[in-house]
């Protein structure tokens, strides 16, 4: 089954923004690339516990198509591919900052735990 294109029409700006960050992993991919600037696929996968290879690949492709992520392929053996945020991706990540602050406050208020991704 083909996926419907993500191109509106939109009800409001939030609708358009959520269109490009929909999916469980996209916000976390933005966070990981913002924190580390450049990541290889395996590094991203290690930094996002629970993401499958298929979902990570799908989300990275969509984010590249939406102009949020830059994919750099190096002509080496074995091939090396690195991902980084575009300027457009950085502005989206900045816009999500207040949402992250709200989430951290929710974690604190409800006494929830954070996953340790430092390993």
TrEMBL record:
InterPro entries: HTH_HxlR (IPR002577), WH-like_DNA-bd_sf (IPR036388), WH_DNA-bd_sf (IPR036390). Residues 12-111 form the HTH hxlR-type domain. It holds the Pfam family HxlR. Keywords: DNA-binding, Transcription, Transcription regulation. This is Helix-turn-helix transcriptional regulator. The lineage of its organism: Bacteria, Bacillati, Actinomycetota, Actinomycetes, Pseudonocardiales.
């Amino acid at each position: 089954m083909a996926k419907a294109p993500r191109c509106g029409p939109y009800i409001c700006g939030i609708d358009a923004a959520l269109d490009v960050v929909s999916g469980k992993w996209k916000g976390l991919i933005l966070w990981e690339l913002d924190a580390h600037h450049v990541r290889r696929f395996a590094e991203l996968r290690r930094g996002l516990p629970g993401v499958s290879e298929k979902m990570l690949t799908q989300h990275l492709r969509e984010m590249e198509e939406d102009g949020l992520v830059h994919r750099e392929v190096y002509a080496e053996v074995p091939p090396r591919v690195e991902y980084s945020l575009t300027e457009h991706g950085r502005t989206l990540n900045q816009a999500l900052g207040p949402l992250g602050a709200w989430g951290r406050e929710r974690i604190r208020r409800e006494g929830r735990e954070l996953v340790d991704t430092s390993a």
